[in-house]
Amino acid sequence: MRFPETFIQEVVDRTDIEELVSRYVTLKRSGSNLVACCPFHSEKTPSFNVNPTKKMFFCFGCHAGGTVITFVQKAENLDFVDAVEFLANRAGLPLPRESEATKETGIPRRRILDANLEAAKFFRACLFDENLGKEARAYLAGTRALSEATIKHFGLGFAPNSFHLLVDHMKEKGFREDELVAACLAGQKNGRTYDYFRNRVIFPIIDPAGQVVAFGGRVMDDSKPKYLNSSDTPVFKKSRQLFALNFAKNMSAERMILCEGYLDVIALHQAGFEFAVATLGTAITPEHARIFTKYTKRVIISYDADEAGQKAAEKAMRILGDVGMEVRVLKVSGAKDPDEFIRKYGADRFGRILDESKTGFDHKADRILSAYDLTVGVEQIRATNEICSLIADYNSPVEREVYISDASKRLGLSTDALKGLVTQFRKKRAKERAAEETREAQATLKNFRDPINPDAARHFQAAAAERAVLGLLLRYPEYRTIVEKGEIGLAEESFLTEFHKRVFSALMELHKSEYGFRFEFLDERFTPEEVGRIRQMEVEREQLTNNGIDVFRSAVEALNNIREKEESAGEDLSASIERLRKKSRKTT
């Protein structure tokens, strides 16, 4: 379905880009614009820029850019139609001819969200049903020591051991089988639809806006798999959601606890630590890390004490550190996880060990030192090498100084000796990075590819000239008028690269249309990556001071000259080939 231009325009006009983007990253004022660390790639120095006046964004790091529609497409992994619907729902705008939109574009997000909400009510009713939920209530209240208030607070439920109870219920409520499958509430096999969750305690996954987007299910015995989670759906991406963030986001200005499982989080909330969250059946991702930057300054990692848990903690430390988070690690002794610790020792004692959580460096250093006998010379050398290698990873000279001083005391070696070794490691890594960059540069030159504009490899000069022309056309409507009137020699044929030709065609078509050119109208015609490139062309011109009409005329002239030269070269090549053919015929 194609939305009317007036509707797209209203959706954009009714969307506050600052409020929208603030759901994903923390924005700070910088002059008339807003800046943040980019939500689409890992970075420590903000390069993501939002222009509230133009309702546009652009990242100078990864070159993502565009309108509020583009932002939602990338942030929520939606296509154009679903992104417009997402924003329209936020703005309270009814969709035009929604029945046709449903038929032509598939199942709307709103329908899946409605199905999730109804399913959550069904699971909750089953849990509190005297017969159906008896075993599940005993498990939650007895084995897990959860109060009824906590169970209701988190909206916990129970999926009966049946292949059809939920499906039948949802059909009675007017939901179709394909909608249930799309929401990951049902599966299909041999043409039959069945309940996806069976004989499991159910944990609704609620996003920060309060919408039920998915579910997790846990068995009540030792059968496998222990956990079953919703697959990704149009309203849920597990790499971008955190369990209990809807509660923790209001409690976590100073710190948040990152746990491994739902029950750890719920136990912590019940004990008064309402700033705990967990990933959803997946390891922490850069997207998760960027979510934390919006809500807190420090993340305390509380993973299981086993080897797998410690490896996962080290990965989490690295990913969280990449986005500039202060990271600490909680050491839980005498229990396998926070849930068990609190049940054994109580909330007060947990609070004490929480305050004593260690920095990422201390945690790693402890693990290294515990693996060696420092009274044996060879083992002391190995421990020293590992710790100095660890210290060399820190870019801050102050951090390195502090950690070298600490390591000196623990290893019984002079700080000068450790400084020298750390310097050696840093020099070695600098050489390795330089060599890697050289290899990457050579590979780039050898296999030059631009996935957005692949023709740029064959028409390098033309592509650069085209970018200049298009940047000026995007920036200044009066130049589009000059082109429209034929006052300058610029047409589709002037462009040698297909992508830039498409952009020019769309620009001029929209400029001549009833509603005129608005950047958001490009979102329907181009992918989010292509829109980012188009926005980059505009931003490049915005950063230049001289964009007058003479510059535009010169850019068009340069483009036409390059095109004529390439065409001439092509003709010369054809002539040469023909001469060679004739010569070949004469000699045979």
Summarize, please.
The chain has 588 residues and is α+β, with helices and mostly antiparallel strands.
Record the strand order, biggest sheet.
1-2-3-4-5
**Cα gyration radius (Å):** 30 Å
Outline type: flat
Question: Low-confidence parts lasting 5 or more residues at pLDDT below 50?
Answer: 98-105, 443-447
Strand % is: 5-15%
Given helix and strand content, the structural type is: alpha+beta
Q: Roughly what is the average pLDDT, rounded to an integer?
A: 87
Largest sheet: 5 strands, antiparallel
CATH architecture descriptor name of the largest domain: Alpha-Beta Complex
Helix content: 40-55%
Alpha plus pi helix count: 25
What's the end-to-end separation, in Å? 62 Å
Walk me through the structure:
The protein is α+β, with helices and mostly antiparallel strands and 588 residues long. The protein has five domains: 5-104, Alpha-Beta Complex (DNA Primase, Chain A), CATH 3.90.580.10; 109-235, DNA primase DNAg catalytic core, N-terminal domain; 245-359, Dna Topoisomerase Vi A Subunit, Chain: A, domain 2 (3-Layer(aba) Sandwich), CATH 3.40.1360.10; 371-445; 454-574, Orthogonal Bundle (DNAb Helicase, Chain A), CATH 1.10.860. Helix content is 53%, strand content 11%. The protein is built from 25 helices and 16 strands. It has a five-stranded antiparallel β-sheet with strand order 1-2-3-4-5. Strands 13-12-14-15-16 form a five-stranded mixed β-sheet. The relative contact order is 0.07.
